[in-house]
Amino acid sequence: MTTPFSLAGGLGAVALSLAVLTAPAAACELHQADATPPTAAQSTLHTADAHGTAGHHYTVGDLTITAPWARASAGMARAGAAFMTIENVGPDDRLVAASADVSARIELHTHIMSADGVMQMREVEGGIEISANGETRLEPGGLHVMFMGLEAPFVEGTRFPLTLTFEQAGEVTVEVEVLSPTAGAHGS
Ligand SMILES: [Cu+2]
After folding, report:
1. How far apart are the CA of 121 and the centre of ligand 1, in A?
2. Is domain 4-187 annotated with CATH 2.60.40.1890?
3. What H or E segment, with its residue span, contains residue 149?
4. Alpha carbon 153 to chain centroid distance?
5. Average pLDDT per consecutive 10 residues, the chain (188 residues; last block may be shorter)
6. Is the C-alpha dihedral spanning 42, 44, 46, 52 positive or negative?
7. CA–CA separation, 118 vs 97, rounded Å?
8. DSSP string spanning 83-109?
9. What's the number of CA atoms in the CB half-sphere (13 Å) around residue 131?
10. How far apart are CA 27 and CA 141, in angstroms?
11. What is the CA(73)–ligand 1 centre distance, in A?
């Protein structure tokens, strides 16, 4: 039997989740001030949720960047990495640079398997290729934005601005959300 109590609880939960989704959406619109208003297709991205957080997204030119995130630092680690999905509805592009105030140095990295079967990180020469009409994933074990010489550890629940420079689409500043130290482990 459905009691008024449980019904009210259910509505409360819905209202709460809507409120949680509203904050990142507002941030998106701020960054999209000069772009076209969000379309129905774009707003469905807010439910794309690979890591238990609202999938905030940013648009620049033909690119949509979804849910930039980083793992919280473990212990005294002086390095960190950021991940995101970049969707391209236009021609070939390239992520050529990233900048933020959080570390002494930032590089664009990938992982390669060495001859003796050990995964190693390498800087991507000439930047990360963003293929035409496709989706490029920066994820644990693969492509990532690398932060070396962190000014302070990445703390779970905080965010920091990261400016990405694309060869064609230009520059966009996204907010990187710091998730738990084990976030994304399933995807590595
Ligand atoms: Cu790296």
Report:
1. 5
2. yes
3. strand 144-150
4. 18
5. 42 40 37 38 38 72 97 90 98 98 97 90 96 96 97 96 98 97 68
6. negative
7. 27
8. EEEEEESSS-EEEEEEE-TTEEEEEEE
9. 5
10. 29
11. 14
